[in-house]
Each structure stands twice: as C-alpha cells, then as structure tokens.
Specification:
The protein is built from 15 helices and 13 strands. It is of the alpha/beta class and about 425 residues long. α5 (about 110-120) packs across α6 (about 135-145).
Length: about 425
Amino acid sequence: MARRKATSPAKRIGVLLVNPGGPGGSGVDMALGSQFPAELRARFDIVGFDPRGIGRSHPIKCSKWLIDNAPRGLPRNQREFDRLVSHNRELRQDCRKHSGPLFDHADTLNVVRDMDALRAGLGEEKINYFGHSYGTLIGQQYAEKFGGRIRSMVLDSNMDHSLQTKDLAVTAAAAVEDSLKEFVRWCKTTPACTLHGQDILLRWDRLLAAADRGALYESAAPVSADDIISRAYEAFSSGPPEWPQLAKWLTTLRFGRPHPQGNTPRTSQPPGTEPHGRDAVFCQDWEARIRDYRELQALVRAESAAAPHARTSPEMRQAILSCIGWPKHANNPQRPGRMGSQPPVILLANARHDPATGYAWARNVQNQAQKKTRLFTYDGWGHGAIGTTCTMNAVNNYLIHRSLPRPGASCPASRN
C-alpha cells in the first residue's frame, strides 16, 4: 500500500482509500499518481493498495507459455470449445501451483475484508473511498458488509453485480453499440472526420464482413473483425474518446484476397511466469460458466441482437470466455446489492455513453439501493465520469463537505 499524506494537516479530514479497477489495476500507482486535485490532497491522506493477487500484493502468477498460447478468438465448434475448456483448466491449475493458496481466495469479498483491516491498521474509525470501474464493486460490497465504517464514498463507472451471464454480456455489448453510434453521429456532423460524408455504418459493416472472410489488411498484415472491434473499443473508452484517430485508422484498411486461415501453432515451453490475476478475480466474482458450444452460440446471438454493428464487448466476452471450464461455483457469485441502512448516501457517477461500464449498470445499481445512493451523470463519453471541472467540483464537494448533488443532476459533455 502507499499513502500520500494530506498537504494541510490542520485541515485533514481523514483517509481517502482509492482503487482504479481492472481487476488488476494498482491502487498504489493510483495513490502516487497526479490525478487527484490539490483540494482533495490537502484534506485527505490518499491511500492506495494493490488488492490481493494484484501488483505488489502477492501477485497471481502463471506460466508465460500457457498465457501466450491460449486459443485465439471465439470457438467455432464444439471441438474448439473443448480445447478452450482444456486450456482454461490447465491454466487455472498452473496459476494455483505458482501462486499458492491465495489463488483460491482472490474474490472481491476477501478484498473487502482486507480493506477493512487496512482501515483498522490506519487507526481510522471511518474511511472515505473512491473506486473506479471494477473498484466500484469493492465499494459496493464494502458498503454492504461494513457500511457503518464509511464517511463518504464515490463510485465512478459502476459494475452491476446483480447480472447473470447472459444479461451481463448483452448489456455490455449494448454499451459498445451505443458508443459506436455516438462515434458515427460525431463523424456525420464534423467535417474534420476523415469519414465525413460517407455511410459510416455501412463502411463499418463491410470492413467486418471482409475481415470475417480473411480479406482485410493494414499494409500487408491481415486484420480480423476482433482487431477492429477492439481498436474501436479502446478509442471509445478513452477520455475524451479518440474518435479522430479511429476514423483515420479505418481509412487505412484495405480489401484484398482472402489469406489462409488457421490456428496459431503452439510454441515450445520457455521458462518463466508473469502476473495474471484478472481472470482469477473475475471468475471468483461471477459464475459465468458456459457449458457447451450450443450455449455459447446462444449468448453470441443475444449479443448480436443487442449490438448489430459492434457485435460484442471485447473485454466482457474475453472475461466470460476465460471462465469456461472453471468449477461451477464461484466464491462471490453475482446477486442483487444489499447495502442496508448503515452506510451514508453513496455517490454513483457514470458517463452516459460509457462503453465499458454502461449507463444502464449504474441505473440498475441505483435502483437496487435507491435510498442509499445518488446517481450523478456525466452527459459525455468514455470510461470514467470524473474529468471535467463540473464533475470534479461535484465530487470534491461531496467528499469534503458530504454535500450531495441534487437528484437527477448532471454535467454537460466536453470533448476537451
């Protein structure tokens, strides 16, 4: 863990624990970074910790050769599905061997207990907390278990732990589709966009179709549909979104003759391990267990119905695929939130057009705890609501003075 002490000790309020999400992000790096405004750094000790299994906190490690030689892409039949099952089981056992007993206890409920132990170790009766993305699940579950020990809590870009696998995948895909439509809308109204004046969705669909046939290239390198969707997802997730760069990149793609298809061959087994905690956390927090290829096909059809152009959320699909073959039961399976009566009113913040943690998730979290949460909206884009002067002022005012925005409050979108 790392602590940046309050710069105005006489005005110090307490500690502000922080987590950037992931799962896999370093709270230590977040605390030592420069993203917190001077007003918060003056009043709080900023304290970040790497959750168990992550970063500097006994990181989960796995054999590099297994990670590098994972099956690529979506299984195309039951045989490829079975191959993914075998790989995931082999990787899980390998990670357990290299990581020790902690591997089986990397779920968020255990992180929540760790966080309360940190509170006690810091000598604080109550904490303040800022969690982003997957870090919002830590905050939500801390509020359920230790609600009376919270002074204030801001959860930015919210996970919805109540969703079962299909709904999780479908809502994630819908969020990416929404971001794609926002990109198209911007390009249509912005002459500087390199695709301005074209039927952008038609071009997008044609690019994906060519990639599916193996007939799309960037220079001489083949480009897959997954490459395009992932590149767009990264552009949409940035704050501000990297729309100009995405539009320019799409114009560099060229149609050509289909290239040979085939699986990447397995290589020899070089020694060494590398950190790989993300899957362990997600698969212990979600019972995302697809049983066979037929069930996977149904999930993909549901995603496509919700996202006819974007098709899927590449991040969520990969997370779900990583859990195929895991034991049936998770340590911390998804369920509706139960915050109870102890915590103060928690500030939920979300961008209206977030491709990673869609706005629908934040609304659903708020609906599950209407009297204990207040939803604050950034009417813009990207993965993260906090970044403009308007949104930062609202968060600072809440954390320092515990003054909540009015119900339904929002901040205008900004491309700066």
